[in-house]
Every structure is written in structure tokens, then in C-alpha cells.
Write a structure and sequence with these properties.
Length: 176
């Protein structure tokens, strides 16, 4: 294979970080991944859906933490030493958004050719955008590729952002 052929293949593929939930493999585009962290407790926010575990302060940024098992209606499990939070950064409406995704374990990084990605089946209503970007077979196993930007529940995100604006204001200095 010459260099031009390899360049064409590289331009027609995307790398995905894959992870495990309920013994199934899922993936998000590697360019959306900011970092991978071990599970740590977070600050709970009242009146959030159960799948929003709370928020963490990540170097000055308030990051909502979403348990994908709960968001997808999978069986809850206790967090363990291999439970991780994948911090993703996506652009929505021209703004950068950061969110942590709690998953069972990180699996691998795969370079996937665009032509190998199958469109997800149309199971829901037309008004309900799926978070599934596509499906791909890797080593005889089906991997569900997710769209990081569609995982964001924008209404919940706005509620969390409004809290962080109030909490990041400078503390008052006492006169004395």
C-alpha cells in the first residue's frame, strides 16, 4: 500500500473510544473525549433526573456527570474500581459543552471506516432524535456508536449552567 492509499483510508475513517456497559460495547468519537477519570463522588443537584449524578469542578469548569446506564434504562450496578467517567467536550449551538459519562469500563480505541458504519434502525418517532450515530461490527461484535452532542440534554444542561454562574461569582470580601 502506498502513502496516497493510506492517506485516503485515514481521511475516510474516524477513531472511536469504546467502552462497556451491561456487557455491550459502545463508542464515542475520540476527538470528543477530553479525558478519562476514575469514578469520584460528585455534588448532587436537586430536581435533576436520576441519571444526572451531580456535578464536579474540573479545573474551574462545572461538569455535569451523567450515568449512561440509567439514561439508557439499563440495570443499575454499584460503582467499582473500574468504573470510569469519560469527560467529553462537544460544540452545541456554537458553544463548547463539557459532560462526564459514567460507564462500566473503557474498552479500546478503534479506527472505523465511514463505509463500515451502518445507520441505526428507525424505531422511535421522527420527533425523537436518537443518540445513536451508527452501528459497526468489530471482531464479530456489534458496537453502538453514540453521538456525544445528542447525549446532552440541553434543558438539563441549561439548568446546571445557571447554577454554576451563581456559584462561580467572587466571594464578598469583608471590610475590616
Amino acid at each position: 500500500m502506498d502513502n496516497n492509499t493510506q492517506t485516503e483510508i485515514d481521511e475516510q475513517s474516524t477513531q472511536f473510544l469504546t467502552f462497556i456497559m451491561a456487557e455491550e460495547e459502545y463508542g464515542v468519537e475520540i476527538l470528543d473525549v477530553q479525558e478519562i477519570r476514575g469514578w469520584e463522588s460528585c455534588t448532587e443537584i436537586p430536581n435533576m433526573p436520576a441519571y444526572v449524578k451531580g456535578v464536579i469542578n474540573l479545573r474551574g469548569t462545572i461538569v455535569p456527570i451523567v450515568d449512561l446506564r440509567q439514561k439508557f434504562g439499563l440495570e443499575n450496578i454499584e460503582y467499582s474500581a473500574i468504573t470510569v467517567v469519560i469527560v467529553v467536550k462537544v460544540f452545541v449551538d456554537g458553544k463548547s459543552k463539557v459532560m462526564g459519562l459514567v460507564v462500566d469500563a473503557v474498552s479500546d480505541v478503534h479506527s472505523i471506516a465511514h463505509c463500515d458504519i451502518n445507520l441505526p434502525p428507525q424505531l422511535g418517532t421522527d420527533n425523537d432524535p436518537s443518540v445513536i450515530r451508527g452501528l459497526v461490527s468489530i471482531k464479530d461484535k456489534m458496537v453502538v456508536l453514540l453521538s456525544s452532542s445528542l447525549l446532552l440534554d440541553l434543558e438539563q444542561f441549561k439548568n446546571i449552567e445557571s447554577l454554576s454562574v451563581h456559584n462561580t461569582q467572587s466571594p464578598m470580601v469583608a471590610n475590616g
